[in-house]
Amino acid sequence: MHVSSFALVGAFFSAFGASQGLNKPPLQDNLDNLKQGLINNLKVTPSTREKFRAGWMPKACMDIANEEQKNPADFQVWKVKYNDCSEPWIMCYHKDSNQPLDALINTFGRLPVHTRDFVRHLVSVPSSEWKAYNMDGNIVFFGQTLNVLPVHIHESAHSLDFQKAFPETPLSDSPKWLQAYNKDSAVLDNYSKKAQAENVAQFTVAATFGKNVPGGLEKVIKGSEKVKNQYDMLVQQQKEGGDLLVPGGKCRKRLPNSEAVKIGGGANSRVMGARSLKEEDEKPDVNFKDTELEILEVVPIDTRESCKGTKFA
After folding, report:
1. Structure confidence at residue 306 (pLDDT)
2. What does the alpha-carbon distance between residue 21 and residue 92 come to, in Å, rounded to a whole number?
3. Environment class of residue 207 by beta-carbon count within 10 Å: exposed (0-12), middle (13-18) or buried (19+)?
4. Which of 69, 91, 72, 64 is nearest to 80 (CA)?
5. pLDDT in the model for residue 281
6. Cα 85 to the chain's mean position, in Å?
7. What is the pLDDT of residues 207-249, one digit of tens each?
8. Would you say 301 and 134 are in contact if contact means Cβ atoms under 8 Å apart?
């Protein structure tokens, strides 16, 4: 379903609005019991990495760094290329992050490629808090969350929902989804009750489990028949969207990189030779070179308020 940008903004406030809390009972407290099955059955996609040009970073990363009151010069910027995509993802990793860079790269690499298609940049921020959020397709991980697979799936699910991955866009505010919700007597867990967008994101975690773990959701969630309509709708939408939650294939769509901007001061203000200074001053080209990739339009979203406290042990 095609909707205008104006309609998408309206749907965003509807799907995430505080007044939209759901009143159906949860089947369980959280989805912690899905984590190990996901890890066991979603294998890490091999990757290579190289540093982004010194002194530069994507504007989206800089905006997030400033918003989180972190010095942009303290971020390492990497281009990470997975074997199933012709183009790399640019990741911004704070030097004091709570987990190593490999944890971020490998956990994201477990996601099916057609889920990753709809994620723009990844940002890691040191913190004692347990939270993550999605802003305009960029996923920001705090503290220990950067190596928690269900959190990666949950935050990527917001991109699937709002960045037009599903035929119904945004799914969380579509008549078909609301009809499925109304037919069921429960939601998956307490976090699902926050808003329909969080409900869809949790069902995306569940559907990723169901599509990839032997025995499916019924094996681990008691009473799953009470959420059958929502679950079936999510599975149908991911199928019609091109098997978004199933590993295999190559990337076919991508959100465009944000433009490269210069980092001022900090570690990048060292004295360098004339040639190095010239190379550093040259703005990196972040445009994709693969002409067969479909370049998507970035839809503005901001899940900062609703995505607090999504903890998977």
Report:
1. 74
2. 33
3. buried
4. 91
5. 77
6. 17
7. 999 999 999 999 999 999 999 999 999 999 999 999 999 999 9
8. yes
Q: Are 244 and 271 in contact (CB under 8 A)?
A: no
Task: Give the pair of three-digit tokens for residue 277.
Answer: 């200074």
Give per-residue pLDDT as tens, 77-132. 999 999 999 999 999 999 999 999 999 999 999 999 999 999 999 999 999 999 99
CB atoms within 10 A of CB 78: 19
Nearest to 186 by CA among 238, 218, 229: 229
Residues 202, 31 contacting (CB under 8 angstroms): yes
What is the distance of C-alpha 53 from the center of its chain? Answer: 24
Residue type (1 letter), 124: S
- What phi, psi does 207 have (nearest 5°)? -70, -35
- Which 8-state DSSP code applies to residue 77? E
Phi, psi (degrees; rounded to nearest 5) at 19? -75, -5
Q: How far apart are the first and last CA of the chain?
A: 36
pLDDT attached to residue 264: 79
Q: How many whole angstroms separate alpha carbon 300 and alpha carbon 282?
A: 29
Question: Helix or strand or coil: residue 39?
Answer: helix
204, with CB counted inside 10 A (0-12, 13-18, 19+), is: buried
Place of tokens 């609005």: 17
Cα separation, 209 vs 42, in Å, equals 9
pLDDT score recorded for residue 268 = 38
User: ∠ CA 217-195-70 to the nearest 5 degrees?
Assistant: 100
Cα–Cα separations (whole angstroms), residue 80 to 50, 66, 86, 151, 297: 7, 23, 11, 20, 22
Residue 3 corresponds to which tokens in the numbers above? 């909707």
Residue 246, judged by CB atoms within 10 A of its CB (0-12, 13-18, 19+), counts as: middle
Region for 134 from its dihedrals, namely left if φ exceeds 0, alpha if ψ lies in -120 to 50, beta otherwise:
beta
Predicted confidence (pLDDT) at residue 12 exceeds the cutoff of 60: no
Report whether 251 contacts 114 (CB < 8 A): yes
CA distances (Å), 119 to each of 34, 152, 157, 187, in order?
22, 10, 9, 26
